[in-house]
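Risk register update: the risk of archive-format incompatibility is retired. Evidence:
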Amino acid sequence: MKHFIKSAILAFGLATSPALADVKITYGSWAPDTDPASIGVEAFAKEVTEASGGKVTFDNLYGGQIVQMRTVLPGIGEGLVDAGYVASAIYQAEMPIGSMITNYASIQSNPYAISAAVNETALLNCEECVAEDRANGLTTLAYAGTPHFYLMCKNPISSFKDLEGKSVRAASANLRLAKLMGATPVNTPTTEVLEAMGRGQVECAIGSVFWLQAYSLWDEVGYVLDLPVGQYNNGNVLAMSTEVWEGLDPADQAAIKAGLPTLVAEAAAAGVAKAKEVREASIEKGVVWGEPTDEMRSFLNDWFVSESKTVRSLGAEKGIANADAIASALEESVAKWNQIVEETGGDKDAIRERMQTEIFSKL
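Archived output:
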């Protein structure tokens, strides 16, 4: 049974016309309500509800209340929720193009620029991306990137050679990075990293600075290498059932589209603020943020360059016919939005307006 509701208000036994029916959309996310993506969704929902005069409302269920990371896609298909936060990296068989873009985690950017670039690439410049989502019953309306990932370790390191033979928790592209460092990459679930570190099973983790607080990793992590190693690019933060989307009347669709720049900009802004907050709190707890050596910087730069070719090769191996063109489109868009963010000084409202003009007004 679909959660999507058009509740016709009865008057004298007669239903109002469909254009006047209220709309309630159930949204499910595995991310907690404190996650930057969730903060963006809340701001978006509030804006859409106000703009529609209360006609379009949302029931937002975070923290895996109704769908988990591995169940959100079938949950949307089965009508458990109308929309959700789909991490395409989890559904590599169903979403090879989406997971290829996610795999390009090494592309150098920032939360505002990577979020804008992925939206521009996937929504406007990649017909295959749209078709892939449609094949999974989805109409993706917005994507969100994350702040930078870092190498977080129990003990200080002075060289990547210090990691040789040691276990490093990583995922996606960072599995390749850990292996290149000489470490043994392990895909330990995020929720189990703290325990694994405590038992000596994992020396380091490559991941979001948020994890220090969210999963109490700062109880075991004593050192963070102050050198970004990429980010998570491609969260389908508002993936809606195509059946539900096409069941909305044009006015409701327009109200939702108008709120999309707010969703993406607020999520990015929350990510920037949260990263700063957690960094400062970790230092107060005694975590050392270590300055990288020139050798470390050179190593990472070489990896960043090599990943461009690697991502294309992996895409081709998955049977993606236009893997090179899709990767090129993303690279061009990231360069464009990196420049825009620099020009605007990272001003949230200015970036939001540019996203509206250059991306979402064209949907």
